[in-house]
Design brief:
- With about 180 residues, this protein is α/β, with parallel strands linked by helices.
- The protein has helices spanning about 1-30, 40-50, 70-75, 90-100, 135-145, and strands at about 60-65, 85, 110-115, 125-130, 150-155, 165-170, 180-185.
- The protein has a seven-stranded mixed beta sheet, covered by helices on one side.
- Strand 6 and strand 7 (about 180-185) form a beta hairpin.
- The chain is elongated, with a radius of gyration of 18 Å.
- The protein starts with a helix and ends with a strand.
Length: about 180
């Protein structure tokens, strides 16, 4: 009996190690892309959700939603809003959908789209969350210009280089972390 328990524990341990190594390899490989996978810190997510000033029935999108670290808390906080996550990584979307299994009351208001956000139509969204590289933000600038009036962009870490047409509010969290808030005028 003890041998069976030890074999099961060994199997669980090795499966966990392989999973962790696979996750780390995925992160390292993602740095070849314009937008690598780097999870947003939870304390930053809380701040981003606070400063977004989301109103009922506004449409929310997270560009590069990863494992759902922003869209799940957003759905919990804003109960009358449709929340969209856009990510082209099958692996990250799978993790998000797995996490949503543990939140049955919010998963009806969350959609996770298999799409490259560079090709997505984001013009109908009211609030856009992003933690993207400066290059990715540069590539999205033409799409940001098409946003409707009063739309907000909440960007962690990196500012928009061309914020013409937006009112900019910068809220520094610490010396190394910044959240940039842009209101379309």
């Amino acid at each position: 009996m003890i041998i069976i328990v030890l074999i099961i524990l060994q199997y669980i341990f090795f499966t966990a190690i392989i999973g962790i190594l696979g996750y780390l390899a995925f992160i390292l490989i993602s740095f070849r892309n314009v937008v690598p996978y780097v999870p947003s810190p939870r304390r930053i997510i809380r701040q981003m959700l606070e400063i977004a000033e989301v109103k009922d029935n506004e449409r929310i999108v997270d560009l590069g939603s990863g494992t759902g670290r922003i869209i799940i808390p957003a759905a919990k906080k804003y109960r009358n809003n449709l929340i969209i996550g856009i990510d082209k990584s099958f692996f990250l979307r799978l993790i998000t959908k797995f996490r949503l299994l543990f939140h049955p009351f919010i998963n009806k208001r969350i959609q996770v789209l298999n799409q490259d956000f560079f090709n997505a139509d984001i013009s109908s969204y009211d609030v856009i969350f992003c933690f993207l590289t400066p290059e990715a933000l540069r590539q999205l600038t033409p799409k940001f210009k098409l946003l409707k009036q009063e739309s907000r962009i909440i960007s962690y870490m990196f500012p928009l280089e061309d914020s013409q047409g937006f009112r900019e509010v910068i809220q520094h969290i610490s010396a190394k972390d910044s959240i940039y808030y842009y209101l379309k005028i």
